[in-house]
Amino acid sequence: MAERYCEKGVYLVAVGRCKEAVAWFDELLEAEPRNVQALIGKACACDRIGLFSDALRCLELALAVEPMNVDAWFLQGSIFHRKGNLSDAIDCLRHVLEKEPGHPEALFILGNCHFYRREYPDALECYDRILGADDAYPKAWYNKGVVLAEAGRNGAAIRCYDQVLSMNPGVAQVWTNKGYCLAQMGRYEEALECFDASLDINPADIAALHNKAAALKQLGRDAEASACLASVLEKTDGHGPYPVM
Question: What range defines the domain where residue 113 resides?
Answer without folding.
Answer: 76-151
